[in-house]
Write a structure and sequence with these properties.
By secondary structure, this protein is mostly helical. It contains 12 helices and 4 strands; from the N terminus they run ααααβαββααααβααα. The chain has helices spanning 2-41, 48-73, 81-124, 130-149, 163-166, 174-192, 194-204, 206-211, 216-242, 253-263, 275-294, 300-322; strands at residues 154-155, 168-169, 172-173, 244-245. The strands form 2 sheets. It has a two-stranded antiparallel sheet.
């Protein structure tokens, strides 16, 4: 009987070790499978034009998702990014006639950092759950954008405003190049700096981190500021691309970003995750959406797939944490 119990424990331990490996490498394998399948069934998919389009579609959501990964690893969650995205474009567009192109961009991006700071302070010093904080601030920020615009589009007549958004760098659009920079910078911060270790410690075991001298509140505030700055940068680039600021821009963008983060395997509980996982989670979401469009599948099924995969990712994380 005792031998049987020992065998059962060994089997169970091996099973959860296998689950952990699936969490690490399952998403890259899934991306490879989807990529291969679409290359086989669609003659349009594996073309330079479509692949560049996939990268372009990934860039804006990807920037927000990568910054959001830092927030989630540190133990928070930012649901205000779509609203910050919108108001940054509005503020940039409205500021250009007064302070010029560079000044307008700076106003929009710094405003995003300011909103991130407020979110961080409210969720740490104010002791309000970050989900509630950022959900409420997102509603407030979106409302402010509507007040500023009166519900109208903010058109920028200066043609140089559109240059950054419509530009090309190294054969890809500016936003793809900036996305690559954000990925590299976030990876370096998390994997190669003391601050990165503090981020993991703050989300994994905040009490132990505090006892070790880590200023957990400060670390979390910084991640929210970074999230705000990156979301605002994405918003300004998007506004630049169409030379227009919109109060309703980016609706649902935060859901896509969170989907990429969770599908990539970053723990909803904090303390665990990686930028590369989020990037693969993002590509899986975008490839499925692109494949649905190419194969003329009803887009409603894309939402069903996304919701099901998010639920599965969170459930897998919860089960593995308990074990």
């Amino acid at each position: 009987m005792q031998v049987g119990a020992e065998d059962f424990r060994r089997t169970r331990k091996a099973w959860w070790a296998y689950v952990a490996r699936v969490r690490d490498f399952g998403i890259p394998i899934a991306v490879l499978i989807v990529f291969s399948y679409l290359s086989f069934v669609s003659p349009v998919f594996f073309t330079s034009r479509n692949l560049l389009n996939v990268l372009d579609q990934s860039a804006i959501v990807g920037m927000i998702a990568v910054a959001g990964t830092m927030v989630l690893i540190a133990g928070g969650l930012d649901l205000s990014t779509a609203a910050v995205f919108a108001i940054a474009g509005v503020l940039a567009g409205q500021s250009v006639p007064k302070v010029g192109i560079a000044g307008g961009f700076a106003v929009g991006i710094l405003a995003g950092g300011g909103f991130g700071l407020v979110n961080g302070l409210a969720s740490t010093k104010g002791r309000v759950n970050s989900i509630i904080t950022t959900l409420a601030s997102g509603i407030i920020i979106r409302g402010l954008a509507l007040v500023l615009t009166g519900g109208a589009l903010v058109r920028v007549l200066d043609p140089t405003f559109a240059v950054p958004g419509q530009g090309v760098m190294l054969g890809v659009t500016t936003q793809v190049a900036i996305f690559a920079f954000v990925v590299a910078a976030a990876w370096f911060l998390l994997a190669r700096t003391t601050f990165g270790r503090y981020v993991y410690a703050s989300g994994g075991n905040p009490e132990a981190a505090r006892l070790s001298g880590v200023q957990v509140d400060r670390v979390r505030i910084i991640t929210f500021v970074v999230s705000g700055l990156v979301a605002a940068t994405a918003g300004v680039l998007s506004a630049s691309r169409v030379a227009t600021g919109q109060a309703d821009a980016g609706m649902g963008l935060e859901i896509n970003a969170i989907a990429a983060i969770l599908i990539g395997g970053t723990s909803i509980s904090g303390g665990e995750g990686a930028v590369w996982r989020t990037v693969f989670g993002l590509f899986l979401v975008v490839l499925v959406g692109n494949g649905f469009n190419l194969l003329d599948v009803n887009p409603i099924w894309q939402q069903v797939f996304q919701g099901a995969v998010i639920l599965g990712a969170v459930a897998l994380d919860s089960w593995s944490k308990r074990r």
